[in-house]
């Protein structure tokens, strides 16, 4: 079994990694949401321009309440931007809007990892909710069968997290290409824009890392049941 020191270090990492990533993205976003983009375009205008530049006219852009609630809904064909980004004219807003449109471009091009992630949603959702019950049942009843079932369910959720990484990094790469090529930001603004996109990517990396650590721990516990 884990020693006390290892146990505390492990759970410390599970807590610290997500908190650090969340703090990083919030502070970076807050900083660059106060820096105006030279184009003077709102996030909504940025999104619409990139969509049209790529020949995409069946995707709408809408405001949504909250902060950092921005997302692309492939079923409704809607890019939803938090109100601050939708109406704002900052570098952060332009970066976030371009990133979400990057997902719309992926959808239009049938990007393979986006299709795979969408296909994994049902299994990942069920696995994320149900796995812990099987795992706890396996531990309490000393049942390797229940434990293994829980591990497989959790693996589906972890796979979703891992597949999300190339989807998000690709969307950010597309975002940088689009806002530079369309003149939405100038060359001297690229560094700040990349900081916003990289900080956002950290949250996905942190989530995937924590998910892999948890899965690894339960796999180790499963094999330890034989001892």
UniProtKB/TrEMBL annotation:
<protein>
    <submittedName>
        <fullName>Zn-dependent protease</fullName>
    </submittedName>
</protein>
<feature type="transmembrane region" description="Helical">
    <location>
        <begin position="196"/>
        <end position="223"/>
    </location>
</feature>
<keyword id="KW-0472">Membrane</keyword>
<keyword id="KW-0378">Hydrolase</keyword>
<dbReference type="Pfam" id="PF04298">
    <property type="entry name" value="Zn_peptidase_2"/>
</dbReference>
<feature type="transmembrane region" description="Helical">
    <location>
        <begin position="119"/>
        <end position="140"/>
    </location>
</feature>
<feature type="transmembrane region" description="Helical">
    <location>
        <begin position="6"/>
        <end position="23"/>
    </location>
</feature>
<keyword id="KW-0812">Transmembrane</keyword>
<dbReference type="GO" id="GO:0008233">
    <property type="term" value="F:peptidase activity"/>
</dbReference>
<feature type="transmembrane region" description="Helical">
    <location>
        <begin position="146"/>
        <end position="167"/>
    </location>
</feature>
<dbReference type="GO" id="GO:0006508">
    <property type="term" value="P:proteolysis"/>
</dbReference>
<dbReference type="InterPro" id="IPR007395">
    <property type="entry name" value="Zn_peptidase_2"/>
</dbReference>
<keyword id="KW-1133">Transmembrane helix</keyword>
<keyword id="KW-0645">Protease</keyword>
């Amino acid at each position: 079994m884990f020693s006390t020191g290892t146990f505390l270090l492990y759970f410390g990492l599970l807590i610290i990694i997500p908190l650090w990533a969340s703090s990083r993205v919030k502070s970076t976003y807050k900083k660059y949401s106060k820096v105006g983009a030279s184009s003077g375009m709102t996030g909504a205008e940025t999104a619409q321009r990139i969509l049209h530049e790529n020949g995409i006219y069946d995707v709408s852009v809408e405001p949504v309440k909250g902060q950092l609630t921005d997302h692309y809904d492939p079923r409704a064909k809607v890019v939803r931007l938090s109100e601050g980004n939708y109406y704002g004219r900052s570098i952060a807003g332009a970066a976030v809007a371009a990133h979400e449109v990057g997902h719309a471009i992926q959808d239009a091009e049938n990007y393979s990892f986006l299709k795979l992630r969408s296909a994994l949603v049902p299994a990942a959702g069920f696995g994320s909710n149900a796995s812990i019950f099987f795992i706890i049942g396996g531990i309490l009843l000393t049942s390797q069968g229940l434990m293994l079932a829980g591990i497989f369910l959790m693996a589906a959720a972890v796979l979703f997290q891992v597949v999300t990484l190339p989807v998000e990094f690709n969307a950010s790469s597309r975002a940088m290409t689009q806002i530079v090529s369309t003149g939405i930001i100038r060359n001297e603004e690229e560094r700040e824009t990349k900081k916003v996109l990289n900080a956002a990517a950290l949250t996905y990396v942190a989530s995937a890392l924590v998910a892999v650590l948890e899965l690894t721990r339960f796999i180790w516990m499963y094999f330890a049941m034989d001892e």
